Amino acid sequence: MARITASAYMSHVPLIGVAVDKGLTGDEYFKPLFDGFEPGREWAAANVPDVVVLVFNDHANAFGLDIVPTFALGMSETFEPADEGWGARPVPTVEGHPALAAHIAHSVIREDFDLTLVNNIPVDHGCTVPLSVMYGQPEAWPCKVIPLFVNVVQYPIPSGKRCLELGKAIRRAVDGFDEDLNVHIWGTGGMSHQLQGQRAGLINQPWDKEFFERMINDPEDLATMEHVEYVREGGSEGIELVMWLVARGAMSDLAGGHPPSEEHRHYHVPASNTAVGQLILEDPN
């Protein structure tokens, strides 16, 4: 049977992708950031899954304000990198897993989550930057990817509790898939940052570090955090962190199992004008 064995959480700052694409990762500005990613890359190389369910938000490249799905699942065989205004990133095509995606859709919709099912859709830096963080610049990504889009751009957006419960439902779905697959789930976005307005450039390191602790040790309580706190403490784009809760909800301790082990944690300020975080949790065997 398929199983979720690990979750990863990381920022998807577009400048990270620029540094990778232009060979700048060893430059003075970027080296501390990418040095901190290295233990996560080593773990990723030793623990390559068959499939990653990759949770991210589109940045008006696949969806415009005319259609804003709360949750949308990618069902295709392939997903091309989006042209975000300066050409598509020079990264491999994202290979999907339609059979598992269809099974997840069937299962979670029967549990009353109203997913939008999407085909022939591009994926932007929200998807490709985390892949670059973990796998560098390969000729092909080493695993299949099922994109899961979450709306954190246009209010109303889903609550932390709704995201956590979706993660739990995804775990149940994967557990019921009749194929031997090793599945990881990644939550992306954040950490604290604000890109506009009077508080542009806001970074809240104490709040970010507390978020790590709550994510690991008390996700059920963290899921009760109101949107206004994300925005007040983490900036207007800090709301992206609700997507980490989808991944955390899929870990075995929230299904009655043992707590996950922390394999890696990295926090860096700043990359562009953003606090960058990375966390890897692994389920016990």
Q: Gist?
A:
The chain is an alpha/beta fold and 285 residues long. The protein has 9 helices and 10 strands. Helix 1 (14-21) crosses helix 4, helix 3 crosses helix 5 (160-175) and helix 5 (160-175) runs parallel beside helix 9 (242-249).
Query: What summary fits the major beta sheet?
Result: 8 strands, mixed
Number of helices: 9
Shape: globular
Helical residues, percent: 25-40%
Radius of gyration: 17 Å
Q: At the third CATH level, what is the topology name?
A: Protocatechuate 4,5-dioxygenase, Chain B
Which class of secondary structure composition applies to the elements? alpha/beta
Distance between the termini: 14 Å
Strand content range: 15-25%
- Taken together, the total number of domains comes to 1
CATH architecture call: 3-Layer(aba) Sandwich
Low-confidence stretches: none
The SSE string, one letter per element, is EHHEEEEHEHEHEHHHHEE
Query: How much is the average pLDDT?
Result: 96
Relevant CATH superfamily = LigB-like
CATH hierarchy, class: Alpha Beta
